[in-house]
Design a protein that fits this description.
Layout (H helix, E strand, L loop, with lengths): L2 H19 L11 E12 L4 E11 L4 E6 L5 E8 L2 E6 L2 E5 L2 H9 L5 H8 L9 E4 L7 E6 L5 E8 L2
Antiparallel strand pairs: 1-2, 1-9, 2-3, 3-4, 4-5, 5-6, 7-8, 8-9
Length: 162
């Protein structure tokens, strides 16, 4: 073996060792975070209501958008928001409001904890009045949240794409 070949092998060995010692950086939710997956919402009233759809969520609790998708990928609804403004586009109609919560309730039949949902999807617990979240399956892309009060009780299930 020549000295030049020996040096190349030595350099390769050092690179492999350095790579093996590197620790991955934890993923941190950024203001421009985005998620996709499926969600199911059950509103436990008479008669019960449910919504199941694919979703794409982008941005942050302060400014972002959520698109709900049918099983074949067509857009069912689009919610967009920024401070003091929210818009719902659904079925060729557009509704503007100063309240994202109001539009989300009209779309889903219940108030959703939008701010907390961004934290939950990042795997972090966050308080939302009346809601209890189970993040024990977050590593598998599963989140479950329940609200008992105020009525009607609601169950939110999220399956994140990985």
């Amino acid at each position: 073996m020549t000295l030049q070949v020996l040096r190349r092998w030595s350099l390769c060995a050092w690179l492999v060792l350095l790579t093996a010692c590197a620790t991955p950086q934890p993923q941190v939710s950024t203001p421009g975070a985005d998620w996709s997956g499926r969600l199911a919402i059950q509103v436990l009233k008479e008669p019960p209501e449910s919504l199941s759809a694919g979703f794409e969520l982008q941005g942050s609790a302060q400014s972002g958008q959520m698109v709900l998708l049918s099983p074949i990928g067509t857009t069912l609804a689009r919610l967009q928001w920024r401070p003091e403004f929210a818009r719902l586009e659904q079925g060729g109609q557009q509704i503007d409001s100063t309240s994202l919560q109001h539009l989300a309730k009209g779309l889903t039949g219940t108030e959703l904890p939008i701010t907390a949902m961004f934290e939950w999807m990042a795997g972090r617990p966050a308080d939302a009045v009346g809601w209890q979240v189970d993040l024990s399956q977050h590593a598998q892309g599963r989140i479950t949240a329940e609200r008992r009060l105020p009525a009607p009780a609601t169950v939110l299930r999220i399956a994140l794409d990985r």
